[in-house]
Amino acid sequence: MITLLFLGSFSSFAQKKEPVNRILFIFDASQSMLGRWQSGRKIDIAKKLLINMVDSLKDIENLEIGLRVYGHQKGYPPQDCDDTKLEINFQPAYLVIERMKAKLNMIRARGTTPIARSLEEGAKDFPSGDARNIVILITDGKEECGMNPCAVSRLYQRKGIILKPFVIGVGLDDSWKKTFDCVGRYFDASKESDFTKILNIVISHVIDNTTAQVNLLDENGQPTETNVNLTFYNDFTGVSKYNYIHTMNTYGSPDTMVIDPVISYKLVAHTIPPVSVDSITLNPGKHTIIPISTPQGELEIKMNSKINYQYIVRPAGIDTTLHVQEINTIQKYLIGSYDIELLTLPRKKFINVVVSQSTKTTYSIPNPGIVNILLPSRGYGGVYLQNKDKLEQIYYFNANNLQHKLTLLPGNYKVVFRSKSAKQYIYTNEKSFKLKSGETELIKIY
To answer: What is the pLDDT at residue 141?
Structure first.
């Protein structure tokens, strides 16, 4: 029964459907679209070219299409900033194409340009559920209703409702083009011939299978590093999109991953310390190799102890904790120099420890010993590490306990004690002792 349940679970996992692709076309039918654009009016040319494009989508599986139009219901003036409407709700492409073509033919350019409101309402048009929600905005003008299209786009991208919108500028004034950089990925259709090419590129982002491989490069520039956690962040919103653990395929090459080309990415390789690459863009329908320099070596501190001591690893000369590692474990670090502080008693430090490519840097620490300190009464003082003429206090008596059992590294120590009831400094007692590796010492203070 367990086997059947496992096989059933595996089968359902393997047969899990890919999320549906949804494209919402937001079409500008504001009064400015009546302007001339090479062979005719902008709106007529844009409708014709868009109709030709959507007609080619009807046989694509796992694709749903919707159409929102703005500026087509109310004449200008007066300005109506609510003039935006979902004309075609989402349906499978093969069912909706003819309706969409007929609707586009009926649209007349009349009103104003509420881009932000249309983006906001457009984000709400998408049904809930697992899907890739794509917005393609086709416009020839800028926001005319006082809202901020960039803020709206960023909000709904951060919420994960839409992916980075595509903006196709139809004969757009040069001074307005930069205003769309923050809205989404902008394409400039300055000529009629550009429009079809751009639409093909945009649709390719949506429907074509796109792959990438991350080459984790060693000191020699070879992709030999692996087993590193990778996070792909949306470069625009900062939200994480993918988390993968890098691996090599059966041929010994970095494994290929399927990745969404709609957005650009920031890639973080979670080495110690982490390494990142910004502004990664992918070619839709193609394979992209992403190189990132992560040369690594290993670090280990060996110690025969029942206590799982930890040690702090810092960049050499910098008081910043990179990692906390346990003794007798092996961890990879980027090649370079590090400072190590072992949290024993007393603490043990190693300065400028060099980690080299594909080698293991190992330090062996002698076994600690145990000291039992018996005090005649409750009092103050502590245990000092004695290094020639210098004393470093490593343990404090709390004036509550008569016995103190400590695990210490081998070395020369001194106990200094004064009874709580003694009111003069001359009643301070001292006793030196030497602790050897693996031995136990009993120290009595009289």
So the answer is: 86
Same domain flag for 390 and 416: yes
Three-class SS state of 298: strand
57 with 168: CB under 8 angstroms? Answer: no
Note whether residue 4 is domain-resident. Answer: no
Identify whether 13 is part of a domain. no
Q: CA of 383: how far to CAs of 95, 354, 397, 415, 442, in Å? A: 83, 33, 8, 5, 14
Tokens representing residue 162 in the block = 């839409």
pLDDT above 90 (res 195): no
| 128 plus 26 within the same structural domain | yes
| Spatial separation of the C-alpha atoms in residues 403 and 55, rounded to whole Å | 88
Q: Which residue has the higher pLDDT, 175 or 288?
A: 288
Total residue count of the chain as it appears in this document: 446
- Crossing angle, helix 93-106 and helix 42-55, to 10 degrees? 170
Q: Tokens for 52?
A: 């030709």
- Domain endpoint, select from 365, 392, 409: 365
Number of domains in the chain: 4
Res. 147 pLDDT band, cuts 50 70 90: very high
Asked if residue 218 and residue 287 are part of one domain, the reply reads yes
H-assigned helices in 136-257: 149-158, 192-207
Asked whether residue 382 is assigned to any structural domain, the reply reads yes
At position 94, the amino acid (one-letter code) is Y
Share of the chain above pLDDT 90, in %: 71
CA angle 101-103-104, nearest 5°? 65
Average of per-residue pLDDT across 122-146? 91
d(CA 70, CA 367): 77
pLDDT at 17 (0 to 100): 64
CATH classification of the domain holding 400:
2.60.40.1120
Residue 68 falls in which region: left (phi positive, over 0), alpha (psi -120 to 50) or beta = beta
Q: How far apart are CA 388 and CA 369, in angstroms?
A: 20
Domain final position from 261, 293, 325: 293
User: By residue range, what is the domain housing residue 26?
Assistant: 19-207
Residue 11 placed within a domain = no
Query: What are the tens digits of pLDDT across the range 338-380?
Result: 999 999 999 999 999 999 999 999 999 999 999 999 999 999 9
Asked if 228 and 350 sit in the same domain, the reply is no
388 & 435 share domain: yes
Assigned token pair, 439: 């031995």
Band (pLDDT 50/70/90 cuts) for residue 181 is confident
